[in-house]
Amino acid sequence: MRLRQSVHFFLLGMFVGLSLSGLILLSYTSSWFSGTDIVSMTPWLAPVVWEGTFDSILIDSIFKQQNITIATTVFALGKYTRFLKDFLESAEEHYFVGFRVHYYLFTDQPEAVPEVKMGENHHLTVRRVPSLDRWQDISMGRMEIIEKLIKNELANEADYIFCLDVDAKFYGRWGAESLDRLVGVIHPWFFDYPRDQFSYERRPESQAFIPAGEGDYYYTAAAFGGSLADVHHLTKTCWEQLNIDIANSIEAIWHEESHLNKYFLYTKPSKLLSPEYLWRDISISADQVKIIRFSHVAKNYAEVRPNF
Ligand code: GAL
Ligand code: MN
After folding, report:
1. 39 annotated ligand-binding residue
2. What's the half-sphere exposure (Cβ side, CA atoms, 13 Å) at 178?
3. pLDDT of amino acid 25
4. Is the CB of 189 under 6 A from ligand 1?
5. Which of 2, 235, 241, 262 could be cross-linked to 146 through a Cys-Cys bond (beta carbons 3.0 to 4.6 Å apart)?
6. pLDDT score of 10
7. 276 close to 50: Cβ distance less than 8 angstroms
């Protein structure tokens, strides 16, 4: 009798002990799978590029065979020329190393462009553009300049184009994994927010209007790209929509970024880049972001912008 009882106790103890350790193990390991989840595919089956989702050596070898050139636009007007040195030097360390890159730099002060040593097959062309009084106009006007550049000059010069903010710096690889027909970058503020909190334009009077309940992601205008044809259509459309807004005396809340978001809602990007491809130096880290590739530098807005 006694022996049977203690065997029962022993078995019960084993059961409770094992269940408890199972629970502890589960609660520990479940944090590996939830909470820090990344979405690596959109509902329309476009990949979302995160560290760990691609093999950089394989990707490079595939795109190397295609002998491609990546045009890259950068705008540095007024005091924004101060960002050029870090932007270009860090790009030369991390951006499409080993591929043909042609930067088209638009500035109102060509004399302020620093001397930066370009890597093999990397070239820089500087273009003078008129100064403007409002940063919003500089930002929106990029759509027109990029549209014209692609239409008038790039046809036989490049295969892909990226349009990047200059007040940013590279910290890690940005390479051929980012190439596709139409490429949007998820804004670092909103990647884990519900869509009703995205800062879309909400006034129906603007061409950039996106009604509540619609929208997939909130994309940044600080980096976007794709094939020449697709980015030409994007910039042309956004510039047309911006001008309809001007004629109706309305300016979308985040300027060309609002129009870009509207465009991507109806013309879905074929590839999305995670916020690794545009972080912000001032942001706290996030579990999902294992590597920061490109990041907005901290800046004193009042000091660098021509207006407020
Ligand atoms: C800010 C960013 C702006 C705009 C805005 C959208 O963080 O500085 O350029 O993208 O988010 O809400
Ligand atoms: Mn910027």
Report:
1. no
2. 27
3. 53
4. yes
5. 235
6. 65
7. yes
Query: pTM for the complete prediction?
Result: 0.89
- Helix axis angle, 135-149 to 256-266, nearest 10°: 50
**Of 256, 236, 257, which is closest to residue 246 (Cα–Cα)?**
256
Residues 167/80, Cβ–Cβ less than 8 Å: yes
Helices (H), the chain: 2-33, 56-64, 84-94, 135-149, 228-247, 256-266, 301-304
Average pLDDT by consecutive 10-residue portion of the chain (308 residues)? 63 65 52 64 98 98 97 98 98 98 98 97 98 96 98 97 98 98 98 95 98 97 98 98 98 98 98 98 93 96 92
Residue of 138, 139, 254 to test ligand 1 pocket, by largest number of atoms within 8 Å of CB: 254
Backbone angles phi, psi at 189, to 5 degrees: -80, -30
Does ligand 1 lie within 6 Å of residue 254's CB atom? yes
Q: Which of 147, 177, 257, 276 is catalytic?
A: 257
Token pair for residue 21? Answer: 């350790």
Residues 56, 26: Cα–Cα separation, whole Å: 33
Closest-CA residue to 137 (of 241, 236, 262, 256): 256
How many helical (H) and strand (E) elements, i.e. helices and strands, does the chain have?
A: 7, 11
Helix, strand, coil content of the chain in percent (nearest 5): 40, 20, 40
Q: Is 283 in the pocket of ligand 1 (CB under 6 A)?
A: no
